[in-house]
Amino acid sequence: MSQSYYFESYPPLFRPPPNIPQIQESNSDETESLLLDSHIPVIDYFKCTTPTIRTTKYQDVNEDRNLISEACRNWGLFRLVNHGIPITLLNQIEEHAKKLFSLPYETKKAFFANSTSSSNFVSPISYFWGSPALSPSGAALAPKKGAQENNNQSLQWMEGFNVSLAQLSNIHYQDLLLETFRCLLEEYGKELSRLATEIFKILGPFESNYMSIETGLLRVYRYPRCLEPERTWGIDTHTDSSVLSIIHQDDVGGLQVYKDHQWIDVNPLPNTLIVNIGDMLQAMSDDRYMSVKHRVKVNKHKERISIGYFVFPAEDTIIQSTKYNPFSYADFRAQVQHDLKTLGLKTGLQKFKFS
Ligand SMILES: O=C(O)CCC(=O)C(=O)O
Ligand SMILES: [Fe+2]
C-alpha cells in the first residue's frame, strides 16, 4: 500500500505534509527505563477467583484478593494475568480493528455516522477522533475551535470506535468485515463484564447499582504515527470517570501511569490486561481506592492499537460517600461535559468533595 493512499485513513490534521520526507513504519523502539515498570502489581485472576484450589502451589485465595485491594489503594492500577480471555479473541479484534482503521477517513466517518437523516437509527458503533471525550449519546465532541492550528494542546492524536455493548446485539451489519468485528466485540464485551463483576465483588461490598453492567462500553483506539511526538499526546493526563476500566494494549507501548510524583511506562506484556480504578470507585470507596492519573504517548514510527472497557454506575443511582456530597453518575457526567466545554479540561471529583 503506497504511503499517500495509506495516510488517507488518517484524519486530515494527522497527515504528514506532502513536502517533507515520509515517515516509515519502523521497528526501532524508543528506549525508556523499564526499571519501575516492574513494580506495577501483577494479579493472577484465576487464583483470586478459584476458592476450591488449595494445594501448596497456590496461596490462600484471600491473600490474592488482598493483593488486589492493596494494588487499588497504592497504585489505582494493576496488571491482570490468567484472566481466561482467549488470546485468539484479542488478536482477532486487533486485526479487524487495524483493517477498519485503515479505511479512508471519509469512509469511516460516513459509515459510522451516529444517525442517518432518513431514520432514527442509532449505530452502536460510532467513530471519533481528536478527543476521547464523547457526548452522552456517544457522538464525538468536536475538537475545540483552534484545534486546527498545529500543536494545539486540545487536539489529541488518536481516533477510535466507541461501542455501546448494550446495543451491540440489536443490529447486524451487511458488510462482512464489520459484522465479524461486531460479533468479536460482543464476545469480548461478555468476557470483560465477567471480569469486571468479579473484581468489583472482590473490592466491595458495594451497593449492586453502584456498578451496572448495562452501561459497559468499549473504546477501540488507534494512535496514528506522529512526526513530532514530543509536541502532542495520544491522550493527555486524565483519570477515568468509570467505576473500572480494563485496557488491552498491543505491543507498541505508550501508556504511562502517575505514581509517587513520577510517570511510569506501563510496558506491554503479552496476554496481560491493565485494570484501572475510575473516579466512581474512588468516591464509593470513600477514597480508599484511588482513580489513577494516566496518559498515552504517541510514537513517530509505529501506530498503536488499544481496546478499553469502561463500566459505570446505574445512571441515576445516588452514590453516598463520607468524602463527597451525594451525587449520581448522571450529575458527574454533566459536570464533566460542562467543564470540558468551558475549561477544556475535566475537574472531576474535586467539584463534589465536601468543603
Ligand atoms: O489507550 C490506552 O492505553 C488508554 C486509554 C485511556 O486511558 C482511556 O481511554 O481512558
Ligand atoms: Fe483513561
From TrEMBL:
<dbReference type="GO" id="GO:0016706">
    <property type="term" value="F:2-oxoglutarate-dependent dioxygenase activity"/>
</dbReference>
<dbReference type="GO" id="GO:0046872">
    <property type="term" value="F:metal ion binding"/>
</dbReference>
<dbReference type="GO" id="GO:0009805">
    <property type="term" value="P:coumarin biosynthetic process"/>
</dbReference>
<feature type="domain" description="Fe2OG dioxygenase">
    <location>
        <begin position="213"/>
        <end position="313"/>
    </location>
</feature>
<dbReference type="Pfam" id="PF03171">
    <property type="entry name" value="2OG-FeII_Oxy"/>
</dbReference>
<keyword id="KW-0479">Metal-binding</keyword>
<comment type="similarity">
    <text>Belongs to the iron/ascorbate-dependent oxidoreductase family.</text>
</comment>
<dbReference type="Pfam" id="PF14226">
    <property type="entry name" value="DIOX_N"/>
</dbReference>
<dbReference type="GO" id="GO:0002238">
    <property type="term" value="P:response to molecule of fungal origin"/>
</dbReference>
<dbReference type="InterPro" id="IPR027443">
    <property type="entry name" value="IPNS-like_sf"/>
</dbReference>
<dbReference type="InterPro" id="IPR026992">
    <property type="entry name" value="DIOX_N"/>
</dbReference>
<keyword id="KW-0408">Iron</keyword>
<keyword id="KW-0560">Oxidoreductase</keyword>
<dbReference type="InterPro" id="IPR044861">
    <property type="entry name" value="IPNS-like_FE2OG_OXY"/>
</dbReference>
<dbReference type="InterPro" id="IPR005123">
    <property type="entry name" value="Oxoglu/Fe-dep_dioxygenase_dom"/>
</dbReference>
<dbReference type="GO" id="GO:0031418">
    <property type="term" value="F:L-ascorbic acid binding"/>
</dbReference>
<protein>
    <recommendedName>
        <fullName>Fe2OG dioxygenase domain-containing protein</fullName>
    </recommendedName>
</protein>
<dbReference type="InterPro" id="IPR050231">
    <property type="entry name" value="Iron_ascorbate_oxido_reductase"/>
</dbReference>
<keyword id="KW-0847">Vitamin C</keyword>
